[in-house]
Automatic annotation (TrEMBL):
Catalytic activity, EC: 5.4.99.5
Residue ranges annotated for the Chorismate mutase domain, each copy included: 8-98
One Pfam family hit: CM_2
Protein name: chorismate mutase
Length: 103
């Protein structure tokens, strides 16, 4: 069992900071795996390939992420860039899954 990393405020060494970042990265990847699971579900549920790309939904997801970022005091522009890539990657993955399921 791995010890829980220190909170950022409690870190006093770079080793502690790095341990915290590494632990958080593992959690983020696990969360992204779940997110991509929802993309697989969307690909399964959507009846039309044309329904995969939804620019209105994309914009609302990015706007919501920026709002959350700003509420947490982190740079919204950085989160907007990350979410742009995340959403586009998710759309590409969903297209791949949509095609795979129906081949």
């Amino acid at each position: 069992m791995t010890d829980k990393p220190l909170s950022p405020e409690d870190c006093t060494t770079m080793a502690e900071v790095r341990a915290g970042v590494d632990a958080l990265d593992r959690e983020l990847v696990a969360l992204l795996a779940t997110r991509f699971g929802y993309m697989r579900a969307a690909a399964r549920i959507k009846q039309s390939r044309d329904a995969v790309r939804d620019e209105g939904r994309k914009a609302s997801v990015i706007t919501a992420a920026v709002g959350e970022a700003e509420a947490h005091g982190i740079p919204g522009d950085v989160i907007a860039d990350i979410w742009e890539r995340l959403v586009e990657g998710s759309i590409a993955y969903e297209f791949t899954e949509w095609d795979r399921i129906r081949d």
